[in-house]
Design goal:
This protein has 685 residues and is of the alpha/beta class. It folds into 3 domains: 142 residues, Chitobiase, domain 2, CATH 3.30.379; 310 residues, Glycosidases (TIM Barrel, Alpha-Beta Barrel), CATH 3.20.20; 218 residues, no CATH class. 44% of the residues lie in helices and 13% in strands. The chain has 24 helices and 18 strands. It has an 8-stranded mixed β-sheet with strand order 2-1-3-5-4-8-17-18, covered by helices on one side. An 8-stranded parallel beta barrel has the order 9-10-11-12-13-14-15-16, surrounded by 4 helices. A two-stranded antiparallel ribbon has the order 6-7. Helix 19 packs parallel to helix 23 and helix 20 packs antiparallel against helix 23. The longest helix is centred in the last third of the chain and has 36 residues. The radius of gyration is 27 Å and the shape is globular. The termini are far apart.
Length: 685
């Protein structure tokens, strides 16, 4: 037995010695004098040190892997942020034409070749190395698809970094913001912005914001402020407040706010032009104001951008006058073309914001790109009653975002800015996928193809789990998006239930309202509901449950577990919806059949399903990356909501509300509502 033990120990030591990889990063004084390349070099060193089975040094030219940085930048006519690596024997040598290109090259090599995964601002997947896993490629190159690419943190919503970005007294706030900026840098992004709200303490906040811009610039990242001329809703920061119209007073207010906010050092102002998304206002007045504002911002080296919402002019509440936003803008002003939810520019059906689809936004993009800089501005989540607030993990976002990126590349669009509304329940994986898709890579001089699930598959430990996610992506694309089950899976929002002219279709709705199905539908209309929603809901959740049952949850890694919980709760949401909707249909059908059969079992099954889903919620809450109290409870904050963005999820508010609405026949918009309508639309603070 002793001999066996000694032999086993000998081979264990030998295996360890053979498997250990030595890595050396060779930098130079030239790159260490620039903050962008210096911070990337230091960050890279720290990441290599954390790698298992890896012995790291900064001087060893005989190491198994030598990463050699240039001692000069390649001179080109137009310096850009692309890069190329060449490998000869064990040495990887970098060529780049800018300091940001050097930083991008380091992070790109680590993520795309050596297997580091920068999937979340607070988490990194660090690979294990051995001699058999050293990549043997001869070259690797990366080129950004857009001149400007990054993320808009929608801090009108109470998401993870809202309070950190808007409150200079937020304990640890700057550190968490820097973590996010590091995430952007590691994923090759060069821009980020967030909403400024009227609830900031302007005089003290500007000095805090200056620290954010300074750190961002050191990382080679431009930063922007999202504010408004005179927007009323959701506590938007207004450049002027005077009513009625007096141009002299407006000038003074704008001049003061520009003088204050320009001290922050932010590079771009993304300015909302309307009071609300569904009103146009006085177009001539806006043109005059924009000329004045543009001149002020030019004098402060700030780029002015505005956005084109998805609402068509003829669908505005105030009637509209047929003008698109592009018709208002001055020559040097850029335009962000916005789309919402998981719909693409070319989808045939996108029943949102009173539209059949969003192809008119594509037309605006093509029309305006010959006049000005265009940034595409899509969403990776739509928090209010659509995805993470329900919650559901909606994988069709992936297909839509990738297809739009490829379309924008084809059209030579200048920028890509992703509107993000929180990272839990899998939505951080979608942001990460988008960031990687915004790069074109070549390995051994061959283009690397991009696929819908390639980034997410890089987080999966087995092919069988990758197949599970891929199957679910196809299932959701077919049932939730193409068969439009999203019309019933989303929760009702205020404008779905409010009567009159404000009964606007912000997100997809069922063909008949729920109170109509319960109380007024004809037999043929009930059959339509069965065919459009109940039958495909059943097909979707039954197939989903079958796939879920094949997964051994105990073998999942952390990322796989989050995906599984998001997919599983989406299946449960479908089953819950089937039961509450079936109750409404059968309640009305009894009016025709005069049946005495009880239908309470449907609501009982819905409640049972909700309680099963609650266990998943509780497990996920234990894994949230930011303070759970901030994310899930009611509290005073800078937004108009006064609760965390995952507060509706904490007790599955929308699920229970639907059960009670069905049972009590109460579909008033204020029934068990968590929304403060007056504060949201700006009637009061």
């Amino acid at each position: 037995m002793k001999v066996v033990a000694i032999i086993f120990l000998f081979f264990s030591i030998l295996s360890s010695a053979v498997g250990q990889v030595t890595v050396s990063l060779l930098s130079n004084k030239f790159l260490l004098e620039n903050p962008c390349s210096k911070m990337a070099i230091e960050d890279t060193k720290n990441l290599w040190v954390q790698t298992n089975n890896c012995d790291f040094s900064e001087t060893d030219t005989t190491a198994d892997i030598v990463v050699k940085l240039p001692n000069y930048l390649l001179q080109t006519l137009v310096a850009d942020d692309s890069y190329t690596w060449h490998r000869k024997d064990h040495i990887w040598s970098l060529t780049a034409s800018s300091f940001k290109g050097v930083a991008n090259g380091l992070y790109g090599l680590m993520q795309e070749i050596f297997g580091f995964r920068f999937y979340h601002p607070r988490e990194i997947m660090i690979p294990d190395f051995n001699m058999h896993k050293i990549p043997q490629h001869s070259s690797f190159a990366g080129r950004p698809s857009f001149n400007n690419m990054g993320f808009h943190l929608h801090t009108m919503h109470p998401i993870e970094l809202t309070e950190d970005l808007l409150d200079e007294k937020s304990e640890g706030g700057l550190e968490r913001i820097y973590e996010y900026i590091d995430w952007l840098a590691r994923n090759g992004q060069n821009y980020f912005e967030f909403n400024v709200l009227e609830s900031i303490q302007l005089e003290t906040w500007i000095h805090y914001a200056k620290k954010i811009s300074e750190y961002s610039h050191k990382r080679g990242i431009k930063c922007g402020l999202d504010l408004s001329l005179h927007m009323l809703q959701q506590k938007a920061f207004q450049l002027y407040e005077t009513l009625p119209y007096k141009f002299g007073n407006i000038q003074k207010q704008i001049q003061y706010n520009v003088s204050m906010l320009s001290q922050t050092g932010f590079d771009v102002w993304n300015v909302e032009l309307s009071a609300t998304e569904f009103t146009t206002g006085d177009q001539e007045k806006k043109k005059k104001i924009l000329v004045f504002l543009t001149t002020l911002l030019k004098n402060n080296n700030i780029q002015l951008m505005s956005r084109n919402h998805v609402v068509k002019p003829d669908q505005m509440v105030n009637g509209g006058n047929g003008d698109e936003v592009g018709d208002l803008l001055v020559d040097d002003q850029g335009l962000m073309v916005h789309t919402v939810m998981f719909y693409s520019l070319t989808d045939e059906s996108a029943p949102v914001y009173q539209n059949k689809n969003l192809k008119h936004m594509y037309e605006i993009m093509i029309k305006e790109k010959v006049k000005r800089k265009i940034w595409y501005f899509p969403e990776s989540a739509y928090w209010v009653t659509f995805d993470s607030s329900v919650p559901m993990f909606l994988l069709p976002y992936l297909n839509a975002r990738l297809s739009d990126i490829e379309l924008c590349e084809k059209e030579n669009i200048d920028g890509h800015l992703t509107f993000t509304s929180g990272w839990e329940w899998g939505y951080g994986f979608i942001d990460w996928s988008i960031a990687r898709w915004c790069w074109k890579y070549q390995i051994d001089q061959q283009p690397v193809s991009r696929t819908v699930l390639q980034p997410i598959s890089d987080l999966c430990s087995t092919k069988s789990y990758s197949f599970y996610v891929a199957n679910e992506e196809l299932l959701q694309q077919k049932y939730i998006k193409e068969k439009e089950l999203i019309r019933v899976l989303v929760a009702q929002t205020i404008t779905d239930e409010i009567p009159g002219p404000f009964n606007l279709e912000f997100h997809p709705r069922p063909v008949y309202p729920y109170p109509y199905i319960r109380n007024k539908a004809s037999e043929s209309q009930l059959d339509t509901v069965e065919k459009l929603y109940l039958d495909p809901l059943k097909e979707y959740y039954l197939y989903g449950f079958e796939m879920d049952s094949l997964i051994n949850r105990d073998e999942l890694n952390k990322m796989e577990q989050e995906m599984f919980d998001g997919i599983r709760i989406t299946h449960l949401r479908a089953y819950h919806k089937w039961n509450t909707l079936k109750y409404l249909v059968e309640f009305r059908r009894k009016h025709f059949t005069k049946s005495k059969t009880s239908i309470e079992n449907f609501l009982l099954e819905a409640k049972k399903t909700r309680l099963v889903a609650m266990k998943i919620v509780q497990k996920r809450e234990a894994a949230y990356r930011y303070d759970i109290t901030m994310l899930t409870t009611k509290h005073k904050d800078h937004t108009c909501y006064h609760f965390g963005y995952l507060y509706p999820v904490h007790e599955l508010h929308f699920w229970e509300r639907e059960e009670l609405q069905a049972k009590n026949n109460n579909y008033q918009f204020w029934y068990r509502s968590i929304w403060n309508v007056g504060r949201t639309v700006g009637l009061f603070d």
